[in-house]
Amino acid sequence: GAPEGVLAESSSNVGRAHLRVQLLDIQEQIMLDMSAAAAQDPSRVLPGCSPARVTADVHDGALLAREAGEALDRVKDNFGPEDCTVAFIVADEGDTRAEPFARALADRGALRSAVLVPRTGLEVRFPFLFSPGVSFGDLPFLPNEVVPGKLFLGSRVTAGERALALLGITHVVSATERAPPVPPAVRQLHIDIVDDEGTPLGPALDLALPFLRGALAEPQGRALVHCDRGASRSASIVAALLMAEPALRPAGAHGARSVLAH
What we know:
- The chain has a five-stranded mixed sheet with strand order 2-1-3-4-10. The protein has a five-stranded mixed sheet with strand order 5-6-9-7-8, covered by helices on one side.
- The chain has helices at 8-11, 36-40, 61-78, 98-108, 119-125, 161-167, 202-217, 233-244, and strands spanning 29-33, 50-51, 86-91, 113-118, 144-147, 151-154, 171-174, 187-190, 223-226, 257-260.
- It is 31% helix and 16% strand.
């Protein structure tokens, strides 16, 4: 069958970049932006993030802990959820305060971990997130980026025309009983597969894997694999591809790294 959440760890490498459902949305995750750009101009905060004001020196543990607590209270008050387990933190490359702040945040909030993501990587790869005046509500539903710049995993709604255009998707695998329409320039493979644990995956993989290998071999090729919810059929196809092609396995997208709580 197709196990739920088989790619949970891989697909969360970009943090909550499931921007509205999947390149920024895990239900138990909070998002903060501690970059200098966000501190100087609130309009430049990454959409969906709460600004984190960090003035403490890297060696001032007490102040870092207090500011982490204030940031945690602010994001819970404005965004939620109350029972968060992971924090996604946008920080400037080379900011030595980022990891101590992330650890203090994880400790203060009883989080499992905090994920640090350099802002510059997001700006380069997803410039549309930083367009003047853009808000979280302006963004379409976007898929998880599993292999940076190449492979994406999502639900049916992430195969919308605007999302495909923003991410430069060239190929789509629709593992659904009914395939959504895609622009003529996008190559689509429709695999009619029922979402049932008794459904054999072999025939679907025989079709999907060669299609995806061909797509990713193209210099500008970018592939989206989706089903209805992006949790079972499509995740199983992507997991099978990563197992068959070890070179594709992500090692931490955009320089993201996890900081575990003490």
